[in-house]
Amino acid sequence: MLVSSIARFNAINTMNNAAYNMMNASNSMTNMMHSKAFGGEHNLSMLHEMDKKISLDLASNSLLYKLAYLQEKASAKRQAQELKQNKLDVMA
User: Fold this and answer.
1) Whole-structure pTM over 0.90, yes or no?
2) CA 82 to mean position of chain CA atoms
3) pLDDT of residue 33
4) Would you say 74 and 4 are in contact if contact means Cβ atoms under 8 Å apart?
């Protein structure tokens, strides 16, 4: 039961980190679009590279969040099964 609890807390921590990173990437993209540097910037290839990087960050953090969510769900299910098994062992 301890192992499933640790796995569950680890998954929750990963979810929180991924959500935080998604928020930071989204804020960076918003700041890039609303900043004065974007309006006066003549180097469009640099802006394109920044946009690609931030979009990739958003996509990878979103995938990481979804995987951690599924891992946490599986750990919760395993923890419930272990708890149920322990109750049955105590009753017997």
Assistant:
1) no
2) 27
3) 74
4) no
Q: What is the pLDDT of residue 91?
A: 67
Give CA–CA dist 61/18, Å, rounded. 5
Residues 6+ apart with CB under 8 A from 57: 21, 25
Taking CA atoms, 55 is separated from 27, 51, 74, in Å, by 12, 6, 29
The C-alpha angle with vertex 21 and arms to 75 and 31, in degrees rounded to 5, equals 155
Candidates 10, 17, 29, 30; CA nearest to 61 is 17
- pLDDT (tens digit per residue) in 9-55: 999 999 999 999 999 999 988 887 777 555 555 677 877 888 899 99
* Cβ-contact 81, 3 below 8 angstroms: no
Residue type, 7: A
Q: How far apart are CA 19 and CA 57, in angstroms?
A: 11
